[in-house]
Specification:
single chain, alpha/beta, 2 domains, 6-stranded mixed β-sheet, 12 helices, 12 strands, 44% helix, disordered N terminus
């Protein structure tokens, strides 16, 4: 038995020696399997807060995820996020361009100058910016812009239809014309339903970190609730997490923005989110990537409003009972905006100078 074992061991050693000699004599081992090379390289630079903000950035990420799922290994992607100050936005865009990414997104209006600079230096690279458009009609930059005022009008109407105190609130992030579009649309929706309802508006700051300050959002919303508001709409990115916390503590209602935020909010806060103004950044990102892969990239301004399916209000399993009684009215208003019967203001100046008079003269 021992002899048999020794013979078996020697046979194995002999086989190994023969294999090594064959390799030495020029018989090469089988080459490793080739993996499929990507056809397209798409990069994205989020704004401050990045993926995981449960709002604006996450909507952009959802569009990228959808494209990844559809195109698989044909699509190579890269995701970058600025530092807290956001001063490295241009450097991050430039890094992706230098690495050969063919389509590069900048998520947010704060990328305007950065994308303009990098796009000029890389004329063969395609760029897309959300919420802005650089001057000069650059032939390699797509401007993905939304009619936030239209979606905000609908949630303003919802707040007006649901308030019991005849006082509602608005918390904005950075005080700039873009966020004022949300405020103007919201205020117009409230006014259209009932001109006697008071709207309290506050902003978290004048720099980009106003979109990433939940503590400030909590303070502002708490102050508005204590001043009589029973519903507060926020357009403030991650800062809105503080608004939801305040709503739950005060047992009042809040309205989310960009994403359907009651789907991602902590479980104890969901009952206090009336609805969300959905800004479908995911649709814009996905559609732009798909058009690019088909050789149909389009530069210049592209607008996403109610008519284009770019904004809306949300209904889901958590808020359907709260919203069911007012949904028919909101859908009626939606059709009036799409048809042009209602023209929603884009600024508070336009609201005060034009919209109020138009609503008054219509006898509404």
């Amino acid at each position: 038995m021992k002899g048999l074992r020794k013979g078996y061991a020697w046979a194995i050693v002999l086989m190994l020696i023969v294999s090594l000699l064959a390799t030495a004599c020029g018989q090469k081992p089988a080459p490793p399997q080739q993996t499929e090379q990507p056809q397209w390289k798409v990069g994205i630079v989020y704004d401050v807060g990045g993926r995981g903000d449960l709002s604006f950035n996450d909507m952009a990420a959802a569009g990228l995820d959808q494209a990844r799922q559809e195109f698989g290994t044909k699509l190579q992607t890269s995701e970058l996020e600025p530092t807290g100050t956001g001063e490295d936005r241009e450097a991050l865009l430039r890094t992706l361009a230098e690495q050969g990414y063919q389509l590069i997104f900048g998520v947010g209006f704060l990328f305007t100058d950065a994308i303009a600079n990098v796009a000029k230096d890389f004329p063969n690279t395609k760029f897309a910016i959300i919420d802005s458009c650089p001057e000069g009609n650059l032939p390699n930059v797509a401007c993905l812009q939304f009619k936030e005022n239209e979606g905000s009008f609908l949630v303003g109407a919802a707040a007006a239809l649901k308030t019991k105190t005849n006082t509602v609130g608005f918390v904005g992030g950075m005080q700039i014309p873009l966020i004022e579009k949300f405020e103007a649309g919201y205020t117009a929706g409230v006014y259209y339903i009932n001109p006697k309802i008071k709207v309290i508006s506050k902003y978290a700051g004048t720099t980009s970190d106003a979109f990433a300050n939940p503590t400030k959002g909590y303070e502002l919303a708490t102050a508005e609730y204590q001043a009589g508001a029973d519903i507060v709409y926020h357009a403030s990115g991650k800062t809105g997490e503080g608004v939801f916390k305040a709503a739950a503590e005060q047992k009042k209602l809040a309205i989310g923005v960009d994403a359907d935020q009651s789907l991602t909010a902590p479980e104890d806060e969901r009952p206090y989110i009336l609805t969300s103004m959905r800004k479908k950044v995911d649709v814009a990102v996905y559609d732009t990537i798909k058009a690019f892969t088909q050789g149909q990239f389009t530069a210049g301004p592209q607008y996403f409003g109610l008519k284009e399916g770019g904004v809306d209000y949300s209904i889901n399993q958590y808020n359907k009972d709260m919203m069911s009684d007012i949904q028919p009215k909101l859908d009626e208003l939606k059709q009036k905006i799409i048809s042009g019967e209602i023209v929603v203001p884009t600024s508070m100046k336009e609201f005060n100078d034009t919209f109020k008079k138009a609503v008054g003269s219509s006898g509404h």
